[in-house]
């Protein structure tokens, strides 16, 4: 099938590449000329495991092409995916200017039947708005489909190629058949393509993300309570998670959820509710608890240094909002860095993939180093913000010998408390105290 994907960020580029991998002819359109030129030169502009191999293979096969010219993309395709940003607006709602702007251009330029597929995360009723915007500019036939994306950064290629489910919202039989034909190769294992109306599809995405954010937040509150009463949240987590009704996943406490989706999507659903006088009380609490959770380790670090962090060096392992990505949007590390800098601390940081993005944001406000042990040379404490695999089994003797003081604040509960105490570390984690 001839496909065009508009927007080549984490979702658009993965979508375009994976659709090409299944034999479709794909054009990816982006307004960022520099990004398009880099991709034309064979460079993957984001870090996403396994994407590079598929990217190269499909470019070589001639199935994956890039342009800044939307009209070229529209002429090429039967199906046009919108993978555009829907950032948080000032009032918490999702800003639809990118989606509706492109919808207007589509209306102005299509000359034959198209299926316009919205993959961006958008509030209930957006498909109707997209449809009205296109219809106001053309008399050509078209259908608008809501097809929310559930991929996780770091696993995006796998999630796209082998989805647990595909949700498609459409009221058009013609569009449903096309979407079924397009997605059939991705669900050969038997996982479902779930067809529904557009509004339900749009809400499914917000409901799923808000539920997962709530699950994490609930565990963060349990963890904070464990800390007070002397229980161990990791034991509680395993005790709870083995109940299949609860499930083992997304129960890991930490320094808050971040990323480009959960923070903005929880707020957008909350705002959509407000707009129709429906109060999502639970989401109010989720936002509030998560805000506090992002800096929950700060008072403990500050107390350790007697309330004076001036001139102290704190090393940070992990800057990305989660492992296996270079994405730093709403990363808890950034909130901790802000607090520590405000208090006068110096920061030495290491992350396997995200340092360049942090450098662009913070410049030389913090020091970036090339490896995890360089970060801990002559440092006063180590703070772990992201659970990259390489941080899981460090050489503790080496660490201890290098550090001015053997002090670790672990925002991701990577190590065994008793082992750390035996090894002579002062070790603070989330929701666990040494017995
Ligand atoms: N990142 C994720 O893991 C993820 C997962 C599921 C859903 N989503 C949703 O998908 C959407 C896209 O997210 P993302 O993370 O890929 O965004 P992103 O910011 O990484 O990428 C968006 C791209 O769109 C381009 N763009 C902006 N305006 C354009 C225009 N007029 N024409 C062409 N290109 C344009 C930008 O240059 C950028 O390359 C959002 O609604 C997001 O909520 C994201
Ligand atoms: O037990 C857990 C699981 C996750 N997190 C945090 O939650 C955030 C989000 O993690 P994750 O969901 O793995 O990453 P995303 O790539 O943001 O993916 C989410 O957001 C995407 C964008 O909407 C959706 O497509 C995915 O289904 C949804 O999982 C990160 O800060 C994690 O550190 C925890 O604190 N504890």
UniProtKB/TrEMBL annotation:
Name the chemical reaction catalysed here.
UDP-alpha-D-glucose + 2 NAD(+) + H2O = UDP-alpha-D-glucuronate + 2 NADH + 3 H(+)
Identify which residues the record assigns to the active site. 261 (nucleophile)
Residues given in the record as substrate binding sites: 150-153, 205, 250-254, 258, 322
Pfam families, from UniProt?
A: UDPG_MGDP_dh, UDPG_MGDP_dh_C, UDPG_MGDP_dh_N
Residues recorded as binding NAD(+), renumbered to this chain, are 30, 35, 86, 121, 153, 264, 329
Q: Top enzyme class of this protein?
A: oxidoreductase
What GO biological process, any one, is recorded here?
Answer: UDP-glucuronate biosynthetic process
Q: Which residues form the UDP-glucose/GDP-mannose dehydrogenase C-terminal domain?
A: 315-417
Q: Which UniProt keywords apply?
A: NAD, Oxidoreductase
Q: What's this protein's family per the entry?
A: Belongs to the UDP-glucose/GDP-mannose dehydrogenase family.
- Full protein name: UDP-glucose 6-dehydrogenase
Organism lineage reads as: Bacteria, Pseudomonadati, Bacteroidota, Flavobacteriia, Flavobacteriales
């Amino acid at each position: 099938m001839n496909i065009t994907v508009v927007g080549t960020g984490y979702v658009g580029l993965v979508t375009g590449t994976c659709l090409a991998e299944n034999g479709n002819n794909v054009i990816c359109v982006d307004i960022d000329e520099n990004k398009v030129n880099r991709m034309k030169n064979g460079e993957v502009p984001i870090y996403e495991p396994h994407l590079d191999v598929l990217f190269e293979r499909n470019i070589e096969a001639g199935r994956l092409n890039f342009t800044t010219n939307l009209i070229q993309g529209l002429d090429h395709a039967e199906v046009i995916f919108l993978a555009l940003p829907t950032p948080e607006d000032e009032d918490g709602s999702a800003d639809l200017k990118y989606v509706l702007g492109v919808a207007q251009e589509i209306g102005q330029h299509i000359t034959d039947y198209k299926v316009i597929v919205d993959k961006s995360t958008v509030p209930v009723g957006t498909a109707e708005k997209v449809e009205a915007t296109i219809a106001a500019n053309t008399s050509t036939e078209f259908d608008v489909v809501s097809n929310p994306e559930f991929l996780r950064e770091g696993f995006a290629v796998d999630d796209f190629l082998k989805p647990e489910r595909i949700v498609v919202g459409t009221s058009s039989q013609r569009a449903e058949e096309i979407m079924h034909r397009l997605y059939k190769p991705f669900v050969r294992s038997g996982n479902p393509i779930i067809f529904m109306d557009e509004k339900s599809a749009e809400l499914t995405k917000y409901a799923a993300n808000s539920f997962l954010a709530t699950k994490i937040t609930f565990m963060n509150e349990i963890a904070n309570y464990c800390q007070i009463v002397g229980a161990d949240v990791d034991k509680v987590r395993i005790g709870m998670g083995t109940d299949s009704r609860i499930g083992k996943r997304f129960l890991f406490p930490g320094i808050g959820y971040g990323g480009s989706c959960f923070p903005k999507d929880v707020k957008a659903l909350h705002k959509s509710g407000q707009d129709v006088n429906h109060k999502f009380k639970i989401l109010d609490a989720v936002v509030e608890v998560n805000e506090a959770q992002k800096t929950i380790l700060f008072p403990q670090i500050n107390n350790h240094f007697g309330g004076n962090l001036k001139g102290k060096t704190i090393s940070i392992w992990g800057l990305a909002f989660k492992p296996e990505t270079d994405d730093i949007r709403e990363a808890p590390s950034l909130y901790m860095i802000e607090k520590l800098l405000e208090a006068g601390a110096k920061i030495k940081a290491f992350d396997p993939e995200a340092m360049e993005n942090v450098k662009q944001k913070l410049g030389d406000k913090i020091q970036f180093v090339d490896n995890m042990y360089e970060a801990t040379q002559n440092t006063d404490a180590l703070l772990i913000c992201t659970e990259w695999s390489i941080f899981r089994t460090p050489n503790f003797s080496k660490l201890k010998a290098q550090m001015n003081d053997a002090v670790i604040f672990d925002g991701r509960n990577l190590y065994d408390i008793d082992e750390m105490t035996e090894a002579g570390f002062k070790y603070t984690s989330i929701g666990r105290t040494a017995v």
